[in-house]
Amino acid sequence: MAQREVQQELSVDQYTLGLVGPDQEWAGTVADGGTIETYTPPGCWGPMITPEFRGGHEVTRPIRVENAEVGDAVALTIRDVEVTSLATSTGSMRERTEAFGDDPFVDHRCPDCGTEWPESIVEGTGEEAIRCAECGANASSFGFEYGYTVVFDEDHTVGITVDEDAAHELAEDATELMDIPENARQHPILLYAPSEMPGTLGRLRPFIGNVGTTPSVELPDSHNAGDFGQFLLETDHDWGLESEAELEARTDGHMDIPEVRAGATLICPVKVDGAGVYVGDLHANQGDGELSLHTTDVSGTVRMDVEVIKGLEIDGPLLLPNEEDLPFISKPYSDDELEAGRALADEHDVDLLDEMGPIQVVGTGATINDATENAFDRAGTLLEMSEGEVRSRCTFTGGVQIGRLPGVVQLDMLAPMDVLEDRGIAHLVREQYDEGERDA
User: Fold this and answer.
1) Where are the alpha helices (DSSP H) in 307-425?
2) pLDDT category, 438, cuts 50, 70, 90?
């Protein structure tokens, strides 16, 4: 079959209808050591207002990786993220309770005729524009509590929020301005034309909000995380879970961590044979925590290299950010710092652990505290350390950062390179951070 033909470079422009899992149709197979290119539609808002979707994102079909088996890991080195949208709308959300059952991201139904996941059409602009194709009722599950529309400069370095007239004009050409891909099935959120907060300038730095590997059970793509996944517990729709233990099948692809950008390397667990790499939910920018729960969703292209790490049995992602994105305390040591450290070690007759490498262990859970505990557990298993040692190393040479509220964190630390060598990822850490001579 075509998806079994191994390709050194694989381009993907086919998407799921809001789901990730082992039953999704494969996009193809990329070689171990090969390159993936994707062209993705916007994430959250478009699928959220399109009632046909079963999840809150529109991600690529899963990509099979040569040699990847359950119990391995896949390293994704992100070479490029390019935004192709010219404008977008976003803000904090308001739920239309009449248009869904248990979950507004998943369990859609027309408020008038009751059709589940109804096909929809667009009539005009604004929050009444998404209509049930069967009966004509407003079928979207979401509106804006507070919303704004952003246009980008030609180089995508800054964006500015616009007023009501400009937002309406942009909404009239929403599909083209957002560059919705031909194979995408979402309605562009630019149609809603929100216009609060006009004249506000923001810096842009694109990143990938939902990227990783396929979970071992089918999940709504936006719920492939320990915090959003809580909404699946004790629900009656097709993707409801009975217990927290069932959520362990997740791979935490939905992170919304701004450091998952060009130049970073993300190491992902393999929970189905072939890994099933997928990409979606590109954002033009976001502050830590994604405090509105949403940010600037955009279309764009991603290029990344793929490498299988045999036998690296991890439960969730590891992130090797760009060095400039690391906190001061967990950056690699400079030559001058190492020289001072060796002198201090000699003075006090102790062996210096001079071979240390930065890693970030991603943790998720119902709350930030739960996510941090999850990261402690994952780091302890990865590095064969007690929780006390993990906490101590993270306090002395690292820390914790908030990816998304309510429950995604990055646990920073400088880890001993001999341990990383044993786990098969030392070469990735060296490639990421050991380029050239370091200055003080």
Assistant:
1) 335-347, 368-383, 387-397, 417-423
2) very low
From the centroid of its chain, how far is CA 329?
25
Q: What percent of the chain stands above pLDDT 90?
A: 97
In a domain, 273, yes or no: no
List the structure tokens of 282.
């590109």
Q: Which helix (H) or strand (E) holds 79?
A: strand 73-83
Query: Which of 150, 179, 203 corresponds to the end of one domain?
Result: 203
- Are 360 and 410 within 8 A, CB to CB? yes
Q: How far apart are CA 297 and CA 256, in angstroms?
A: 11
Please check whether residue 329 is in contact with residue 398, taking contact to mean a CB–CB distance below 8 angstroms. Answer: yes
Length of the chain: 440
For residue 436, pLDDT over 70 is answered with no
pLDDT in tens, 259-275: 999 999 999 999 999 99
| 30, two tokens | 């990329």
Query: Is there a contact between 27 and 12 (Cβ–Cβ < 8 Å)?
Result: yes
Give the end of a domain, one of 187, 203, 219. Answer: 203
Please indicate, yes or no, if residue 252 is contained in any of the structural domains: no
Is 228 a domain residue?
no
Read off φ and ψ for residue 364, nearest 5 degrees: -135, 155
Residue 412, H or E segment: strand 408-416
* 178: in domain: yes
Domain of residue 153, residue span: 87-203
